[in-house]
Inverse folding.
């Protein structure tokens, strides 16, 4: 496998890890959102620094990065999660999730518009099929009902999608920055989450079971996943990643079903078929490395 192919695979591995975010977050129960954000990213950052300090590791020097790269990473990680939490609080989860999952489509759009990437017709079609799969999954075939009272939540969800798509495309400009620097970004996001928690929430002491789940969150979907996504967006095929990212809502639903936190529906099977077709079209259109 080529270097580009390995990087694309790393990015897709991040998508697989993110698919566990919903079921793990739901299972944490009463932990407030910003407290969970602070603890998850705090664990991710500390684990990353410990990895850098291991014998033979690169040391803390690997955390150094240009201020522009650091600002992009920290701003995107915190901004995306903060807006997503606001969206879920101010709008119905179904519609908020649908708008949030515009980010894979926006990645392909931005890759073509500002990323200097040639996006082929098959990749456009594959991405649109992925969007259709996500829309069908979260709406269960029903039409969307827009209540003016929910517009702020919808705007936050759209803002989250825009932030993550822009970050994923612009991150390619910092290919020279080692992915190990994500440990510092995670620590900074953990601090910002802690400040937001102290300002807006009441602390809840986690139980032993909740600590275990928070640890999994910190090491997985809010930890190594961002290192892998950093590799994928800097060195992989960003258009293919945009299409394959639609696996996140589908796999997330599968985990929720497996753990009894969602009910089966015919739209899930159709959505899987659309996603697989779209992914195949996108991969088939990918130019040879």
């Amino acid at each position: 496998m080529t270097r580009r192919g390995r990087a694309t695979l790393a990015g897709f591995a991040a998508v697989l890890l993110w698919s566990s975010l919903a079921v793990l977050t739901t299972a944490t129960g009463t932990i407030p959102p910003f407290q969970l954000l602070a603890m998850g990213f705090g664990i991710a950052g500390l684990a990353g620094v410990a990895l850098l300090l291991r014998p033979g590791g690169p040391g803390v020097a690997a955390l150094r990065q240009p201020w522009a790269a650091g600002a992009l990473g920290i701003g995107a990680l915190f901004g995306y999660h903060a807006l997503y939490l606001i969206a879920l609080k101010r709008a119905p989860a179904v519609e908020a999730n649908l708008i949030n999952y515009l980010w894979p489509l926006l990645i392909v759009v931005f890759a073509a518009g500002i990323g200097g990437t040639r996006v082929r017709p098959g990749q456009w079609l594959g991405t649109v099929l992925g969007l259709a799969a996500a829309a069908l999954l979260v709406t269960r075939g029903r039409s969307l009902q827009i209540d003016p009272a929910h517009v702020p939540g919808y705007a936050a969800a759209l803002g989250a999608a825009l932030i993550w798509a822009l970050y994923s495309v612009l991150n390619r400009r910092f290919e020279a920055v080692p992915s190990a620097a994500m440990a510092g970004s995670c620590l900074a996001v953990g601090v910002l989450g802690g400040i937001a928690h102290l300002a807006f929430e009441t602390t809840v002491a986690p139980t032993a079971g909740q600590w275990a789940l928070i640890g999994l969150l910190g090491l997985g979907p809010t930890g190594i996943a961002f290192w892998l996504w950093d590799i994928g967006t800097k060195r992989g095929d960003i258009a293919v990643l945009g299409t394959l990212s639609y696996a996140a809502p589908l796999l997330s639903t599968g985990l929720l079903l497996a753990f009894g936190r969602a009910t089966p529906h015919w739209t899930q099977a159709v959505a899987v078929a659309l996603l697989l077709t779209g992914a195949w079209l996108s991969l088939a259109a990918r130019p040879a490395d």
